Amino acid sequence: MPTTIFVALLFFFGIAVGSFTNVLIDRYKPEKSLFSLKRLRGRSHCDSCGRTLSAIELIPIASFIFLRGKCRECKSRLSFQYPLVEVVTGAIFAGVPLFLNSFYNISGGRFFLFAAEWWYYALAAFWVIVCLGLLIVFVIDLKHYIVPDELNLFFIIVGILIISILWNFRDSVFPFRESFLKNYVLVFSPFLGLLANRILGFAAGGLFFLILFFASRGRGMGMGDVKLAFALGLLFGWPDVGLSIIISFILGGVFSLALFIAGAKTMKDRVPFAPFLVTGIAATFFFGHALIGWYFSLFGM
Questions:
Q1: Could you tell me the residue ranges of all domains in the chain?
Q2: Which of 221, 241, 256, 284 is 20 to 30 A from 5, comparing alpha carbons?
Q3: CA-CA distance, 94 to 119, in Å (whole number)?
């Protein structure tokens, strides 16, 4: 199967998964479990008039376009969250395997011909799931100012599984592919070992946020952000989590300043931080090596 067709199929499958992801996000209640099967049962309905949606209104992306972003019954506007989450989920399902195919330098399109080693596919599946979890964190924190504990635990479990694969097949992984910064790990880390850098990432990322939490008395940083930093530190390791934190603070500072200048927020208003941390992680995952290379090029290095 040609790579283009396979990637397209992954994208459309991801869009379908994105529709379910929207259900998971919409029905989340901070006081209840994110993965409650009881809460996930039942047909989807309009949040305004309560009308049960028909099958044709549940087609990902197409139904939003067909209905022009409005409920067919009460004409109330539908949130752009629905098509955006579906498109981003499709991009995750297609983009992550495509990126990893290049990152691990799998020649001849063997990855998409199912001719690569099994653990490549396991890593790709785990990273797709991680990115999907990060998307859920992004949206839920925007809506509820909370990062569900279930997702932090989920990231730790998947992180341990990814570390296990990389450790058991470390002789097969190309040099420096245990970090998304590749060879720049030599510059920013005192360790070369996989486990040492994962432990350092867990400690550095989590403790940094924990200090901020106590220093601001919980106003500048929530405990959910602290737990997320610990989990992502283990999942991505050092120095990846360090770069992610730097990017997240730059983005968070610029965005918050813009809101303050525009009068949309005051100094007393809360701004959810997890979306910025997720964006920093995504930037490091896909562009970390290129970003560090660009930074060094500014100094002629």
A1: 1-116, 118-301
A2: 284
A3: 18
